[in-house]
Design goal:
Shape: globular
Strand content: 5-15%
Number of helices: 30
Oligomer: single chain
Structural class: alpha/beta
Largest sheet: 6 strands, mixed
Helix content: 40-55%
Mean pLDDT: 87
Number of domains: 4
Strand order of the largest sheet: 11-10-16-17-18-19
Number of strands: 19
Radius of gyration: 27 Å
């Protein structure tokens, strides 16, 4: 193997400790410690603390509040403490934990008491490297925000730096930059030539972890290979070559401190094998939550065999497994004879989507999958009037955006505009600030006058053999049949209503750099409506229906598939009904009315969780339009469980928007293929989401992004805290906390509950080594409620072993509430 290839391999290994970071316009929630998932949880958080300084467990104060609120069962806690070797009283252990903690600064870069001049005077050489490097990274990685783009970007980051940075007077000895080798690997070898090769891994790991936000972004970008990466490439090797060159020029250390390097070389031996005290508290907290959930599901399972079918439902609605869907699904089912189901929000089609009138493409599928198809929205025949109207509105909006952009970037233009626009512009600003709900009404009325693309466009689902491109345009007939059949198989469907709705979801917010984090995670931080339209279009095709009969799905002739989109801020569900036949108009209109009723109930519940008890739809609309609103909705905050089973299993449970729900019927999945797909796909994705919220809650300064109040967007790719530094990698405080001292999200690892034979799950884990490793290492838990064994529950203990769960008192009433107060509630 060549030396160059060895260096690339070493860099890739070192980079595994840095979590991928997605750009703001397509923010994806992911486990920031994904590179450590091959280690037990307590070892992983210890290793991450050494590398990036992040805390891996909730603080003693958070545990104390949960304990005092009754969220941690005393008996369960006593068992966990004993197993971890602790015999002192819980209060004494909390006191001890509190004394040994390092105070967490949630916003370290914006301390109002900081003496900026003193900070500058105390800048270390390493700090100087970070400051210089982030300046050049921001310039190179900019995605259209900068008025004057960095020159020479087409040469790649390393090449552009060599060409331009020689003129940066902040870099000492900058003339040497022009003499750097042409190849970044050669440059790395030159810097490390006098150092033992067995220390190179530690050097790479140290420098990649120094700015985990920026390196996580370039790691994701280089792997994705999107349009920006193709035009302006950046690699891990190029990044390290620049960083090491700067370190040499400013006299910063090349190697990490000896203690850190020794610990890395020893395979984290310094972390020890014993789990710390917080692990016992966390496990007890999770077990307390899980026990209540499992008891409810076990009781519901026992009652399933006693209930017969209720006839053909008026409509079936398929929502994303997203926790926010659980709320609106309950309220929809309460309005009539409706079935709701859960399925990953990209609806099983891994596509690269291009909307009408835009050159921007997005990969609308989970990050664990690669896009396989290119789908383009194209105008349908006979829709010229709607298309012309839409184009006119688009040109008007584009002109307005151009004016606003000019105002932001040119002070002279701003003054002249305000002078000429006068009171009208001021009145608009005042309305936006003081009357956001009225602004929502105005914008909604404007939207009603302007046609939407789904009214005159159809997604290109049919395969085009002649279309050029990296991915095939559309899907073959066999692929369309496969995606439709897979959806029905995974959800265990055997009956179809007259109207079947695939409802994607998207958020609505007026001023939020992290807005895409509130959209569909299964669609890589993009709205889910396009994915819903694709599957609905496929399922309405006669050729697909003919193919589905061969797969055992004989769809009734009167079944019509409709796409829609759930607004998770306002709980409005919009139906795309342009292709609905006249025979179904009455069905759809009745469904619309019931969706409006369900929206009112769901919005009232959501408003109460936002601290606006007694409010409802109007308050959610205000939040959606208020540009001063730091928290338009809670997103996935509160998530704690993933339940896989038939809808009847949880239909009578109020899960408080804390559970991902995936439809599945073990009886129709005789080979276990559907369950294996759910466990290998959605279960992993929900664990990533859960881990993102967990770590951002326990240490928002390192794994989150601090307060939105001091966010500074940079390059349309990320945010700083203040005016520079590393990119923030996770969720802001406002997505996690109800107030400064009131943590809304309970930092619990995911509890998965599957309704299926336990032997089937064991077989899947024996084949899926990565899944078994996640469970064995404690990144999530798994409980199986087995309908073939008297509906008993079995908890996974590791190494493919299970422990039977025997609740002392079976729950008599299946209408159980899983509501849980904030950890700050008493």
């Amino acid at each position: 193997m060549s030396t160059e290839q060895q260096i690339h391999d070493r860099i890739e290994r070192a980079a595994s400790t840095v979590g991928a970071v997605w750009p703001l316009h397509s923010f994806v929630t992911a486990n920031p410690l994904a590179g450590f998932e091959d280690r037990p949880f307590h070892e992983a958080v210890a290793a991450a603390e050494r590398l990036v300084g992040g805390d891996g467990y909730p603080s003693a104060d958070v545990f104390r509040r949960a304990w005092e609120a009754g969220q941690i069962d005393p008996e369960t806690l006593a068992i966990e403490l004993s197993e971890h070797g602790y015999d002192a009283a819980p209060e004494a252990l909390l006191d001890h934990m509190e004394k040994t903690e390092t105070p967490v600064d949630t916003d370290p870069d914006t301390d109002p008491d900081t003496d900026i001049d003193a900070d500058a005077a105390e800048e270390t050489p390493t700090d100087r490297v970070d400051r210089l490097l982030t300046k050049w990274l921001a310039a190179f990685l900019d995605q259209g925000q900068a008025e004057w783009p960095m020159p020479n970007r087409e040469e790649g980051f390393y090449g552009a730096f060599r060409a331009v940075a020689r003129h940066d007077r902040e870099i000492p000895g900058r003339g040497a930059i022009a003499d750097l080798p042409d190849d970044p690997v050669d440059s790395i070898e030159r810097v490390l030539a006098d150092r033992p090769a067995n220390r190179w891994d530690a050097v790479f790991e140290h420098h990649l972890a120094a700015l985990p936000g920026w390196t996580g972004l370039l790691k994701q970008r280089s792997a994705a290979g999107d349009g920006w990466q193709s035009a302006y490439p950046i690699t891990l090797a190029g990044y390290l070559a620049v960083r090491l060159a700067l370190a040499e020029l400013v006299g910063a250390p090349i190697e990490p401190p000896a203690d850190d390097a020794d610990a890395a070389a020893a395979g984290e031996a310094a972390d020890g094998d014993a789990a710390p005290l917080p692990e016992a508290w966390l496990t007890a907290w999770e077990a307390t939550y899980r026990e209540e959930l499992v008891d409810a599901v076990t009781d519901a399972s026992a009652s399933l065999s006693d209930t017969g079918g209720d006839g053909r439902p008026d409509a079936q609605l398929v929502f994303c497994i997203d926790t926010r869907s659980e709320i609106v699904r309950r309220h929809i089912e309460a309005t009539g004879a409706y079935e709701t189901h859960g399925y990953a929000g990209f609806f099983g089609v891994p596509m690269r989507y291009e909307g009408y009138g835009t050159d921007l493409t997005v990969d609308a599928c989970p990050p664990i999958l690669d896009a396989q198809h290119r789908i383009v929205d194209r105008p349908t025949d006979g829709a010229d009037d709607e298309r012309a109207s839409y184009d006119g509105w688009s040109r008007l909006l584009d002109a307005g955006r151009a004016v606003v952009h000019s105002l932001k970037s040119n002070a002279a233009t701003a003054f002249s505009f305000v002078e000429s626009a006068g009171s009208g512009y001021g009145a608009a600003l005042a309305a936006r600030t003081l009357l956001p709900a009225r602004v929502y009404d105005f914008l909604g009325a404007a939207d009603e006058r302007a046609p939407s693309t789904h009214e005159f466009c159809t997604p290109t689902v049919d395969h085009d053999h002649d279309a050029a491109g990296e991915l095939p345009l559309g899907l073959t007939l066999a692929e369309r049949v496969e995606y439709a059949a897979t959806a029905f198989e995974l959800m265990g469907w055997e009956e179809f209503a007259r109207v079947v709705v695939f409802a994607g979801h998207a958020s609505q917010t007026a001023n939020n750099p992290f807005g895409s984090s509130l959209d569909c995670g299964a669609c890589a931080g993009n709205p889910g409506g396009p994915s819903a339209r694709v599957l609905a279009t496929i399922c309405n095709q006669e050729a697909v229906r003919d193919g589905l009969r061969d797969r055992g799905f004989d769809l009734p002739g009167d079944t019509v598939f409709v796409a829609g989109e759930h607004n998770t801020t306002t709980d409005e569900v919009t139906l795309y009904t342009g292709d609905v036949p006249e025979s179904h108009y009455e069905d759809v209109e009745r469904l619309r009315e019931d969706l409006a009723t369900a929206r009112a109930g769901a919005a009232a519940e959501r408003a109460e969780s936002m601290g606006a008890a007694g409010a409802g739809v109007r308050d959610t609309e205000r939040r959606a339009a208020d540009w001063a609103e730091t928290r338009p909705e809670w997103g996935l905050a509160g998530n704690a469980a993933f339940v896989v089973g038939p809808r009847a299993l949880t239909a009578d449970l109020d899960l408080d928007g804390r559970s991902f729900l995936h439809s599945y019927d073990w009886a129709t999945d005789t080979e276990g293929d559907a369950l294996e797909a759910i466990m290998a796909g959605p279960m992993v994705v929900t664990q990533w989401i859960n881990a993102q919220y967990y770590f951002a809650s326990v240490d928002t300064a390192v794994y989150g992004s601090g307060s939105k109040v001091t966010h500074n967007p940079v390059g349309n790719v990320g945010v700083y805290q203040g005016n520079g530094g590393d990119l923030m990698t996770g969720l802001p405080l406002q997505s996690l906390m109800a107030a400064d001292d009131d943590l809304y999200h309970q930092p619990l690892r995911l509890s998965t509950v599957i309704h299926a034979p336990v032997d089937r799950v064991t077989e899947i884990l024996s084949r899926q080594a990565d899944l078994a490793e996640l469970l064995d290492n404690g990144w999530l838990s798994l409980t199986v409620v087995d309908p073939t064994q008297n509906h008993d529950a079995f908890h996974y203990d590791g190494e493919l072993q299970w422990t039977a769960v025997r609740p002392d008192e079976p729950i008599a009433d299946s209408a159980v509430s899983m509501n849980a107060p904030s950890v700050a509630d008493d």
